[in-house]
Specification:
The chain is mostly helical. It has a domain of 186 residues: MetI-like (MetI-like fold, Orthogonal Bundle), CATH 1.10.3720.10. It has a two-stranded antiparallel ribbon with strand order 1-2. α7 packs across α8 and α7 packs across α11. It is globular and about 85 Å long.
């Protein structure tokens, strides 16, 4: 138990340092923007005196690191600044859009995990036979398919051609209409999931083959334990360690891909929000969206690290 607590403590101690580094990086990069926040807030008709007063009141004339600590303090209070001439809080827009991006990411992740496990385990159990060869070809094709290109194909075929799922329109709340929510999310989630299935199924297959060749498998099967019992109770669990590592890294990639997919399918998530920020010259909005997605990526990867403890008992001794 002490080793487990030590491991968890180490991971949690890394979290604030990583968050601090991300906030500093995002703030410094956005500070190079040539957009004047005073003009952005007050409009083109504001006089130079009004603009200067706004900069002074909001600490925009202070040195870079002073402004960073002011930004950090505001962020800890849930204040990511405002955007547009109406001074709308960025945090309100992020709170509305971020759950949609998370829903899309984790639905795509669920589809990817299910597909990769089925294909990877099947390929390992029938290695070097025709199911393995077919799955290998399919996985390479899936891995080499860009999500945005696949999204366009899905719109043309499954949405416009066959009419199975809608490619646009409002997104109903899951609690109110789960079937409508799934229909609206199905095509974007598939576009995200297919490349991950291609990569992850190969990793699952390799890990499964390595475990199936170990002595304990032959011993257990030789002792009369059914092969499917050995595979489900021991082999699969031990083989999940490497795929989980790859999956943890892919979550952040999928979240970044979700930003692009949302724009293609017209979902009101973080992708649409950051597009509006770039199009309308809203640096606070772009900064808020970028910071939120980056922090979510760090937190999710820390959570995946902690899941190792549940899957691999050997890590508890580290």
């Amino acid at each position: 138990m002490s080793n487990v607590l030590r491991l968890v403590g180490r991971r949690l101690l890394q979290l604030p340092l990583m968050i601090l580094g991300i906030t500093l990086l995002v703030f410094v990069v956005m500070s190079f923007s040539k957009i004047d926040p005073a003009i952005n807030a007050l409009g083109e008709g504001a006089s130079p005196a009004e603009r200067e007063a706004y900069r002074e009141a909001n600490g925009l004339n202070a040195p870079l690191f002073t402004r960073y600590f002011l930004f950090l303090g505001n962020m800890l209070q849930g204040n990511l600044g405002t955007y547009s001439a109406r001074q709308q809080p960025v945090i309100d827009e992020v709170a509305r859009a971020f759950p949609i991006t998370l829903q899309l990411t984790f639905l795509g992740l669920a589809l990817a995990v299910i597909g990769a496990l089925l294909l990877g385990v099947l390929a390992a159990l029938y290695r070097d036979r025709w199911p393995d060869q077919v799955i290998r070809v399919l996985s390479i094709a899936a891995l080499s398919t860009p999500s945005f290109w696949l999204a366009v194909l899905l719109i043309q075929s499954a949405a416009l051609g066959l009419g199975w799922f809608p490619a646009s329109g409002p997104l109903p709340a899951f609690s109110e209409d789960p079937v409508g929510w799934f229909n609206r999310m199905a095509l974007p989630a598939c576009a995200l999931a297919v490349p991950v299935i291609g990569q992850l199924s190969r990793v699952v297959r390799t890990a499964m083959v390595e475990e199936l060749d170990r002595d304990y498998v032959r011993t257990a099967v030789g002792a009369g334990i059914p092969r499917h019992v050995v595979v489900s109770r021991n082999v699969l669990r031990n083989a999940l360690i490497t795929p989980l590592t790859v999956l943890g890294l892919r979550v952040g990639t999928m979240m970044g891909g979700a930003v692009v997919i949302e724009i293609i399918f017209g979902l009101p998530g973080m992708g649409t929000l950051i597009l509006n920020g770039v199009t309308n010259n809203e640096p606070n909005l772009v900064q808020g969206v970028t910071l939120t997605v980056a922090l979510a990526f760090v937190v999710i990867n820390i959570a995946v690290d902690l899941l190792y403890v549940l899957i691999n008992p050997r890590i508890r001794t580290v």
